[in-house]
User: What shape does this take?
Amino acid sequence: MMSGTPALEVNDLRTEFRIAGTWHAAVRGVSFTLARDETLALVGESGCGKSVTALSIMGLVQPPQGRVAGGQIRLDGRDVAGLPEKQWEKLRGDRIGMVFQEPMTSLNPVMTVGDQVAEALVIHKGLSRSAALERARALFDEVKIPSAAARLGEYPHQFSGGMRQRVMIAMALACEPAVLLADEPTTALDVTIQAQVLGLLADLKSRHGMAVLFITHNLGVVAQIADRVAVMYAGQIVEEGPVAAIFARPAHPYTRALFAAIPRLDQPEQALAAIPGRVPSLDAMPIGCAFAARCEERRAGCEAPQVLAHVGKAHRARCHVATVATAFEAEDTAIHDIR
Amino acid sequence: MSEPLLSVQGLRKHFVQRKGFPRPRTIVVRAVEDVSFTIAPGEAFGLVGESGCGKSTAARALLRLIEPDAGQVTYRGQDVLAARGAELKALRRKMQIVFQDPYSSLDPRQTIGSALMEPMRVHGIATGREARARAAALLEEVGLPAAALDRLPHEFSGGQRQRIGVARALTLEPELIVADEPVSALDVSVQAQVLLVLKQLRARRGLSFLFVSHDLSVVRWFCDRVAVMYLGRIVEEGPAGRVLADPLHPYAKMLRDASPVPDPTRRGVLPRIVGEIPSAANPPPGCPFHPRCPQAMDVCSKVAPRWTVASGGGGVACHLHG
Assistant: This one.
């Protein structure tokens, strides 16, 4: 792993929402670090807490509906959890940028795209409007929006979905943030456009040395872009490790079930297996393993709280079955090459 | 091949829009320009392409959910587009559709039981207690309890609703199911549930499928044959294994290369794709794909490529192979 302060460090994050008067945790003790020039993919089904984690890091979960109830969020070594809103506003868009899933609804429809990109530069960098627009034009070139100068004065409805997502990326990158949170940035796009946007993000990451937290449920995308992977289930990270290890030897039964549930273009005649049941709801979260009720390898001990334990180098899983079984095999297991 | 169940020849659907202010202009969107294919009994035929390529419009036009402008659709030799009244009603029994969005395709104020029994009543298949028993059996077939009959759609998750949509399509015991992106609104784990239900039904009832999807891996898993559409035309067609593993048309290749494979050891450089799908209101001349094609030649911008039969079945519309 890289030396120096990580760009982003999240420690024991707990985010709660109020349902019928009581607080229930949607994110239950999530910890991870994100180094410069690294992409961490956060993977899981809808409702597992991926997006809430990102929103918490951005300081966008606020009372009365929700709250960050515990944990530290360190941005460049500085604890930002619980900062007053005024100070958050200085950080957002400057040190930390976010790209949302829905390019159709996350732009302001009555403001030109050029002004929307320039706005961040005027506010955070104190540029004049004309200087900011000039910089916006350069950003449009960088995210490969053709005839950038002419398109600055256009409105979001004149852009296609892929082009809008580029505008979103240009906005997020305007102030050269240390950390980029990308919440399902390609899910609403066609595969060819997705390939363009992923290629763009990879280029920009290596050029600016950004740390990227990439949230997705698409394991194909993860395999293409991630350095490390964290699998989330019911508000917890249940497995994390380097991308090669997670794909070659998924340890947690949930991770394995996810792999078995996706049809693969490169494996015809594959047996597909659905995951029975559903994610426990926020107000009925078990004390022990949250996946136990759906797990084929359920046994005694699953009803106790689970901890993340090593199954390999920098590879950890939150499952007493997986971590005991692999303790014997340890590191000498050859990574079998799927090719 | 035996006589096809469904045969579509030269299907066309243009939408006319008036747009603009203060001087509105008339725009013709050529959603489906020229689509031809056949589906054999018991076969699953996939239609793939990006958004806006006309695949959903083609599926709906052949069912006459929207009236096509031209072309010929025959079902077991019977002309679908000329059918009227009782004849059309009888045809509709044989061809049913499953929609993409399970949240908007069920009436929020109609119980599941009522939604399943209504078609049986309309078509005079069963009423009363018998209809209810049939509806319960259908629910069981898609893996839902009979108790669901008296519930409303909002009580179900997306995957359950989609299975209800499948059960509803089965009420009339059709031979052909048109599935329009049946799993793309669903989460990965739920997607697998619905795909497995569809595959079981196919095996058990000998159903034929027209499976519309943008997801190549889903089509690869489910379909026997596949057609790739681009701007209202089929650019390549053939056995799913051949077309998706070893495509001939540059567009089909681009689609395959852009579909990420969940295997980090095969992390290639993602293809550098130029441009986006042009508007169907103003398709390029010649081969519609030539402005984005890495192998475009002079002829491509002038002459539309002819259909060339490929070895191993199917064919391709490309000057490289013509």
Chain B touches chain A through 43 residues (CB under 8 Å).
